[in-house]
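Protocol step 4 of 6: structure prediction from sequence.
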Amino acid sequence: MGEPLRIMHVITGLNLGGAETWLTRLLLRLPVERFACRVVSLMDGGELSGVIRDMGVPVQSLGMGRGVPDPRGLWRLSRLMREHRPQVVQTWLYHADLLGFLAARLSGCGAAVSWGLRCAYMDLARYGLGTRLTLSACVALSGRPEAVTANSRAGAAHHVALGYRPRRLEVLENGVDGGRFRPDAEARARLRREWGREWGIASDAPLIGLVARVDPMKGHAVFCRAAQQVLRVWPEAKFLFCGAGTELGGVELDGLIVQHGLADAVVRLGRREDVAQVYAALDVLALPSLGEGFPNAVLEALACAVPCVCLDVGDARVMCGPGGLVAPAVLSGPGATEAERAGFLARALGQLLGLRVVERQELGARGRAHVLANYSLERAVERWAAHFESLAGGQKTLTDAKTID
């Protein structure tokens, strides 16, 4: 066997998030005899930088701020590429896509560049000018990288509609570790006791979770509005928030909880390292997001045999499969109102709460079987490995890739 393939991953930051978490899982499982990886974060480190370093993968941070890409960061990134001579540059998220491509060309390192699209819809009015300008530049340059990857078919189609015209567009979905994300009766009982002491939650209270950082696209306002409606029919129901910004004192969520009268019906966890156990303690997971590509929370909850209620964002419908309820597509488009989305969510959540416990468990079990059959972590990692090797080898197709024409 020859030398390992040199890959430089360029990502906007390494705080907890879907792209960042998937990159970390991918790095942990790519065989070191085939791949020599390093990671460059455009901004300062983040929680996951130490985790990645502990794997033995070098991590460097450029210390850039948010907003329009910094020309000084471009120069530093280009210098790193000249120094390390990667054969493949894989970028993650719009800002990294733009700077990674420009730096690879400026450096003359000869690397094949592969962009990474991680969403299927963004309401750009909710984001700053820098993000809008960066996306416009990516649209204009989208035919230049050797490949563009998307983590969902919906994401690939959305970006083509935006004007992306890549030479090669691959759908490379994430996978889930069914050994880590699994039903866990012991963890469920332990966390329910803990939350009972801290939040006054009865051990048998119906518990509906939203596992997502507080972000304009994650739908916390929709979820809170739906929760208010659920409580009118199910006054014993409780609602759990997990993710960055959901802890006590998170100003945006504070306002939503007060506005919808939920103060006595919530569990607020903030970021958690034991998220697999948190899922296992839920009765239902909600996905109220306004835009997603590949909502990892759905895979993870279903792998824990927790049924889901989802808006029809990204690939949520096919991911959820027989493990829950998904809204009609019309409620997930830009024309749908918050009230309409919340109304569906409330009705669907009530429908699942109305099932007998054994029926809800059977629904979750079908969801877990669906996920393990179609989204195994091992298969996802090997498809990414084949993608990297094909780029370095100049191949035109992938044996197990879903190519969007």
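Step 5 (inspection) to follow. The two ends are 34 Å apart (CA to CA).
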